[in-house]
Structure formats: C-alpha cells, structure tokens
C-alpha cells in the first residue's frame, strides 16, 4: 500500500494551499515537511528532489512532483475530480485559470508596498465584483446545476470555494450580490471532507502574517 503524499513547503498558504485543499476534498490524508531554514531547501536541491530548484514539491506514488498546476492535474485525475471528457476538462481548466488570476492578485497583497496597498485592494475589489464573480455566477445560472461543470464535484469547485473564502477575508460584502455563488459555497462547505478541512486543527493554513512573510523572504530570497 502506498504511503501518504508528503508535501514540502513552508508552513503557510502560498502555492501549496490549493494542493492541500484538493487532497483534503478528495479525502486523502497527507503529511507535511515544512521548510523552516534555508538549509532545508538546499538539501532538497542537492538531493535532486526539485526539478527546477523550487517548491512546492509533493512526493506521491513514487514521484517527486513540482509545478503547482501539474500537481493539481495529477491529483484531480487520480481521484476523479477532472471531468468525464475533454470538453469538461477544458471548461475546468478555463474556469480554474480565471480563479488563479484573482487568487494571485489577492496573494500578492501581503508583499505589496504600504503606499500602494490601498489602490491594489480597490483594484482587486473592482475586478472581483465586476469581472470574476459575475462570470462564475453566470455559469451557475446558465445550467441551474449544483456544481460548475458536469453536475458533479470537480477540482474547479474546490478551487472556487478556496477563492470565495479569501474574498470573504478581504471583504465579506463582495459576495452579497451573488446568490448562486453563496449557495455553492454553502453546499461545498457541508461536504464531509470539506467540512472536516474547515474545522480548527486541520492542515488548512491561516492568513499569512508579517512574521511569515519575513521568514519566507529569508527562505526564498525575494
């Protein structure tokens, strides 16, 4: 029997959090080996475990996978969360890319210079309520189904739920005009595996704070 996947990253959200979310939603238990010192990262590099000398890296099924999208694609395919055919997978990819675009904007706030932060937040809120959330609300309205693609749970639903929770952290009022998205968020949050991941004490990571940013700067030299 194969062991649990092992996730190599620092103890924070970053580019690993969407991987944690997808594994949890699939009901897959995983271990984490946190990179806490520059030496930890260097050892992974010297041991030849990081193809491009960067993390996240996931050890799974005898492989050492890097690159977030590749890792997500493997997990989604392995656990049947990637649609039933090429058309569904293409929709999942298209929607996921939009989710990534907005998620990246929100993630970048933590390293935004203080004098630019207010303008950046204003731009993100505008894009959220006028571009991205209307697009996903329209998808749900167009087919009247419980999930975004194929009327069953796929990876894109989990990615969207993660994003909606980040949006709530930024400004909970942004979700108010989108009843179908609010209903989707409620449905997904009540799924047993997701509900468990949302509970205190799970491997879900809290918002990044100033201390974590400073630690990440030292580790990854940005």
Task: Walk me through the structure.
With 222 residues, this protein is of the alpha+beta class. Helix content is 57%, strand content 7%. The chain contains nine helices and four strands, in the order βαβαββααααααα. The chain has helices spanning 17-25, 38-46, 68-78, 86-107, 114-143, 155-171, 179-189, 192-198, 210-220, and strands spanning 6-9, 31-34, 57-60, 63-66. It has a four-stranded mixed β-sheet, with helices on one face. Helix 1 (17-25) runs parallel beside helix 3 and helix 4 (86-107) packs parallel to helix 6. It is globular and about 50 Å long. The mean pLDDT is 94.
Task: Provide a quick synopsis of the model.
The protein has helices at 17-25, 38-46, 68-78, 86-107, 114-143, 155-171, 179-189, 192-198, 210-220; strands at residues 6-9, 31-34, 57-60, 63-66. It has 222 residues and is an alpha+beta fold. Helix 6 (155-171) packs across helix 7 (179-189).
